[in-house]
Amino acid sequence: MGQPVGVFDSGVGGLTVLRELVRVLPGESFVYFGDTARVPYGTKSRETITRYSVEIANYLVVRHEIKMLVVACNTASSLALPALRKIYRIPVVGMIDPSVRRVAALPKRDAIGVIGTSGTIRSGAYEQALRSALPKARIRCQPCPLLVSLAEEGWIERPVTRDVVAEYLAPFRPDPPDALILGCTHYPVLKKTIAEFLGDGTVLVDSGEEAARVVDVLISESGMKKEERIGAAIRFLVTDDPGRFADVGEAFLGGRIADVENVML
Ligand code: DGL
């Protein structure tokens, strides 16, 4: 296993990002860190999320000698990215800029929606980045905190999930946006329900998919990319019960999760 790419989230959500990373970079090794003892991040302050993020990044840099850090959590990306980029010399990729760049490249982007945790929306990170990329666009942001629990429960196509999606996204319905950023790494598993509610006129932007594209370009340009699949490995580290992480996480990763290690920070 060469030098791995470090990926972290508050729990299982970042596995939707890992899924995309593995798809575009099958030769790379990854260390995935899920901070399951301290999830959720979406309700916590900037100070707390920055402290958690730095603790995890230190662990990954010192113990696993990662060559790049992917912050596979929109809340941590919204609140802690500037601090992480100040501390570490390795490239640090977050979820915000890749999604904004994708939206800016769409042929139709007059009205943009963003959904995420309360922390992500409250931070204004997406709004700021969108305003500087697309000053004329109409931007509407909506926190959807309950979607995290529904996704973790595996209630993907249940009536209750459709009801909650309908309630949160009701303000978008009369005039659906040209693009909706799924600004939480849990939301890609609910893509179908969200798409059904908003209709074909809205492009759903998956922050993990976009971030994986950016990581691919960065790794390729730096000459660090490993093409050979031989030796490529994924390690899973969590701060709480490994069994629950594996059970819930498989739907997010879209594959089997074996050998989850419990670590203490
Ligand atoms: N995965 C986190 C995100 O993308 C949401 C879950 C949490 O609140 O910790 O923001």
Q: Mind explaining what this structure looks like?
A:
- By secondary structure, the chain is an alpha/beta fold.
- It has two domains: 5-94 and 209-262, 3-Layer(aba) Sandwich (Rossmann fold), CATH 3.40.50.1860; 96-207, 3-Layer(aba) Sandwich (Rossmann fold), CATH 3.40.50.1860.
- The chain has helices spanning 15-24, 46-64, 74-87, 96-104, 118-123, 125-133, 146-153, 159-169, 191-198, 207-221, 242-253, and strands at 5-9, 30-34, 68-71, 92-93, 111-116, 138-143, 179-183, 203-206, 234-238, 260-262.
- The longest helix has 19 residues, at 46-64.
- The chain starts with a strand and ends with a strand.
- It binds D-glutamic acid.
- D-glutamic acid binds at residues 9-10, 13, 39-42, 73-75, 117, 120, 148, 184-186.
Which CATH architecture of the largest domain? 3-Layer(aba) Sandwich
CATH fold annotation of the largest domain: Rossmann fold
The level of helicity is 40-55%
Rounded to an integer in angstroms, the radius of gyration calculated over CA atoms is 17 Å
**Low-pLDDT sequence parts:** none
List keywords for this structure.
Rossmann fold, about 260 residues, six-stranded parallel beta sheet, four-stranded parallel beta sheet, 10 strands, binds D-glutamic acid, alpha/beta, globular, single chain, 2 domains
Task: Describe how the helices and strands are arranged.
Layout: E1 5-9, H1 15-24, E2 30-34, H2 46-64, E3 68-71, H3 74-87, E4 92-93, H4 96-104, E5 111-116, H5 118-123, H6 125-133, E6 138-143, H7 146-153, H8 159-169, E7 179-183, H9 191-198, E8 203-206, H10 207-221, E9 234-238, H11 242-253, E10 260-262
Parallel strand pairs: 1-2, 1-3, 2-9, 3-4, 5-6, 5-7, 7-8, 9-10
